Amino acid sequence: MGNIFSAIPDWMISQQGLSTVVWFVAGALVSGSGHYLYWCRALEVASAQHMVVVTGCDSGLGFSVALHLHSLGLTVVAACLDAHGSGATKLKALAGLNRMHVLRLDIRDGASIEEAVHEVHLLLQRQRELKLRALVNNAGVMVFGEFEWLTERLINQQVEVNLLGTMRITKAFCSLIRHHEGRIVTVTSHCASQALPGLSVYGATKAALKAWSDALRVEQAKYGVKVITLVPGSFVMQSNILAHHDQHTKEMDESMTPTDKLFFGDYFQRFNSYLSGLSEVREPTLIDDSTLLKKFEHAILAHRPYAHYLHAPYRYVFYHFLLNTMPVWIRDKLVVSTTCMKLRKPPTGVELGVIPPYPLSGPCHNLFKITLYLSYATTCHYLYVIDGIGKVELEEVNPHLRGGRVENHLRKTTPSSSDRDLNLNLPVLSSQAQHD
Fold first, then answer.
1. Dihedral over alpha carbons 71, 307, 79, 311 (to 10 degrees)
2. Do 304 and 428 belong to one domain?
3. Of 165, 156, 59, nearest to 105 (Cα)?
């Protein structure tokens, strides 16, 4: 030990010398770490030689990513399900710069996938300077509805597009991506880590995509291929992912048995009415979220991209932290309360509703609700809500009755088609009114 210390200069052993050495080492570590982090986060200069294939470009996220990458100067192959749709037409308008190429792609169809890969291969042959930088797996389908309501077609559609279709298109491009040492960017979802009621199948497909990507990342690393997942957050109002919700609702409703309709009552309609406002086709536009688009940019151009990108407000991060740490029974109650989709179990027997404790007059005379709970057998109940408009007729109701029960005879006036199908016969009810 003495020989070792004898080799150290005296000035380094002194207090001042040790301080100098510590500061030197600390500075080197900070500088090295900063340089490393900068290099990791640094982006390559966007070039027309970088070609990116993006699926699901008809609207929403895919359309926006294609536009953004093109604006950076990259060459983009935008794959659309409808090659003559509004989104494809807008993207084709940029084809004059020879950096935007629009093709039709249905990732459920093997022949369509082969044709798309062939088109990309020809493009790479015609323009030898091009390199396939990335494949962005964005195409996806979302169907809202409890699992029991979903038809087999709606289940298969989500599995075929979100999971199997993504696997098919990735497998078809693997050889080209490996040859160019490119990367695979797959869009997943918050539902991959925290499944939500009403999105059981959608969440299952996204969770499967995440697990598949984690394994694929390790497999492809030795070939120089980077595999990345990106959670984009929610932007439903800026996409068409729920544009067909009303059609899906109709399909689910028509597939229900009379027994199921009796059991679920108006809950099915209330659930879907909550989302019906989102069921409209929106004109494809650039998503108003520059931070999200920057994350796609980083995933594609960074020297050393992250394996996972998460785009979410801090409250989402905190929310998921709570769900992953709290007891299951608390977690489930929190999920139900935050999704605003509670299932009200109708009690047995017949109950006449109570008038709200405020005056009812003028146009509001018949707007209060009376709820009838009709018991059918021992295990099947039907929740029936009469809203006074077309459903029932209320006669001689005191407009200033408060806090009391209605004394009246209810008679069916215009039964709905579903009521006729179920052969419902509402009984005549009366109750003693209490006046102020």
1. -60
2. no
3. 165
Are both 148 and 202 inside the same structural domain? yes
Contacts 24+ apart (CB under 8 A), 38-41: 39/303, 39/304, 40/302, 40/303, 40/304, 41/298, 41/302, 41/304
Q: Which domain holds residue 164?
A: 50-240+283-312
Pick from 269, 279, 273, 276: which is nearest to 239 by CA?
A: 279
Distances (CA, A) of 401 to 57, 98, 372: 58, 74, 20
169, 288 contact by CB (below 8 A):
no
Tell me the C-alpha distance between 147 and 288, whole Å.
Answer: 33
At 132-145, the pLDDT tens digits run: 999 999 999 999 99
Q: Which residue has the tokens 């930088």?
A: 133
Q: How far apart are CA 142 and CA 138, in angstroms?
A: 12
| 140 close to 239: Cβ distance less than 8 angstroms | no
What are the C-alpha distances in Å from 169 to residues 52, 299, 378? Answer: 14, 19, 51
Whether residue 293 sits in one domain with residue 229: yes
Question: Dmax over Cα atoms in the chain, in whole Å?
Answer: 111
pLDDT digits (tens, 9 = 90+) for 193-228: 888 888 999 999 999 999 999 999 999 999 999 999
- The residues facing 132 across adjacent strands are 51
| DSSP element (H, E) containing 158 | helix 152-158
* Number of residues written out for the chain: 436
Question: What is the predicted pLDDT for the residue at 407?
Answer: 35
- Return the sign of the alpha-carbon dihedral for residues 301, 302, 305, 308: negative
Q: What's the total number of domains in the chain?
A: 2
